[in-house]
Design brief:
single chain; about 170 residues; alpha/beta; 6 helices
Length: about 170
């Protein structure tokens, strides 16, 4: 099971919808604390031929997150719902960047629709080859709430991604 979970995490990180992750990497790459953490990491990947290292932890070590992005193949969603349980508390917002719209309902049934944002990824041309990801078009994520959903969670995620984009210009 540990190997499958690690494969799912790697798939999530290197999925064609990794725009937010790419922005986060660019934002913090010169941060001293980040550099210290990165020096202890063994998992190396490549994005457009640039080496990128990620800190990997098991689901048992995970703490609740403010924002959890689900990016697995549909066949891995059931297992992902179990694995991500320790990363979710009453404040966690969940975005699914999986193709189709049924994943949001499946996630919402398990964790509550009040915390799920609908997401559509468009215009991405990413291709993954083993531990390498290549793209020329980063594309865009379009996010929103279901009818009657809480606009506050949408605004908080929008503000977060706007901040990442703003900070990225200075690193």
């Amino acid at each position: 099971k540990g190997k499958n979970m690690k494969s799912e995490i790697i798939d999530r990180i290197l999925s064609e919808n990794s725009e937010p992750l790419h922005k986060i990497i660019e934002t913090v790459k010169n941060n001293a604390v980040f550099q210290d953490v990165m020096s202890n990491i063994k998992e190396e990947f490549f994005i457009n031929d640039k080496s990128v290292k990620f800190q990997m932890i098991s689901d048992k070590e995970a703490k609740p997150a403010d924002l959890l992005i689900v990016a697995v193949k549909y066949t891995g969603l059931k297992d992902a719902l179990d694995v991500m349980q320790t990363s979710i508390d009453e404040h966690t917002i969940i975005m699914s960047v999986m193709n189709g719209i049924s994943s949001e309902e499946i996630i919402g049934k398990r964790y509550g629709m009040n915390r799920v944002l609908y997401t559509v990824a468009q215009g991405m041309d990413a291709m993954r080859f083993g531990s390498s990801l290549r793209f020329t078009q980063m594309g865009a994520l379009h996010i929103g709430t279901a009818a009657g959903g809480d606009p506050e969670i949408l605004e908080s995620v929008k503000a977060y991604f706007d901040r990442i984009d703003y900070l990225r210009k200075y690193f």
